[in-house]
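User: I'll paste a sequence; please echo it back and then give the predicted structure.

Assistant: Echoing your sequence first, then the prediction.
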Amino acid sequence: MIRQLAVSAANTGVPPASNDVSNYVPIVGSKATELHDTWKRLTDAGTSALNILLWVAGLVLVISFIQHATRYITSGGDASKANTARQGLINSAIGLVFITLTFIITRAVVGIAQ
């Protein structure tokens, strides 16, 4: 059983768990290129999906900000309406910070991964 695991690990390019690497066969040639291409496609798809989600979230944030700003302006001196609108503006600003940080972190991670 242990010998079988070492042989199967050697066939897949994964080193065995022990320090004995005599059966280790590194991934070379077309296998390495295929794995690299698959990884690149996965990271590109994930990055694209996350970018779309961030743009949609940004659009929702802008709409929310405009809506709460309009409510604040038109509160007409009513303190409860003004406070509700002010809280919405604060939440929109916090959302902007989170979306911006997510965008920056995503770009950094993707840049490192490639």
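The chain has three helices and no strands. Residues 27-113 form one domain.
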